[in-house]
Specification:
Length: 262
Amino acid sequence: MSTVVSTDGTTIACTVTGSGPAVVLVDGAIGHRGFDPGVAVAEQLSAHHTVWAYDRRGRGGSGDTAPFAVEREIEDLAAVIAATGGSAAVFGTSSGAALALRAAAAGVGMSRLAVYEPPFSTEEERSEQFVGYVAELEAAIAEGRRGDAVAAFMAFVGMPGEMVEGMRHAPVWPVFEAVAPTLAYDAAALGGRTGGTVPTGLLATIAVPTLVLDGGASPELLRAPARAVAGAVPGAAYRTLADQTHEVAAEVLVPELLTFFA
């Protein structure tokens, strides 16, 4: 493990594997370096690339510094890329894709950007649900109810109530609770109380070659945002991975990334 220091002094933990052109992986909600499928993606990419997997602030081995703003996470990603030599290909998944897109729009040094299913909202009803979720999430975090924050996230992404309650008794639940405050960071990357809609104006400023991916077996509420993002980023390519869901298989994803990053 190595570390980099972000602009505000926060230490960001990284694992570096493989050799070749640098690729930085940006996880979605709750995920960090020790979670699948990110581990499998890193392992397979490392046969051709130097892969930098990092813990987003507040997770795993990384620190955190208040107050939070999306700009701090953009600075974190920029610090990791600076450590690679100043420019790297980037792959972001889920809300990590939204963060990576914002970083690209901010001019962070990327050679190429691939994103998988950034979960923006494309329908008014979903946007309203997102605003309600953000309010519930922020209240739970402010009151120290970390378990309720995780449960709110799981319910918002569609997990049935009885399954959420079952998860509360699973051995992994304390791991989820440990990173619960960072769920607000993911929500902020998606737009927070503005509704999480696709930031088309911002995306239109991206000058990095971009690939947008989605899964053919994913619900329309995830596929529609992917299409909208691809339409908003100038020159972006868009591909659907057959039979894949939001939990995309590394053996299907990685060949697409290798082709695009080559």
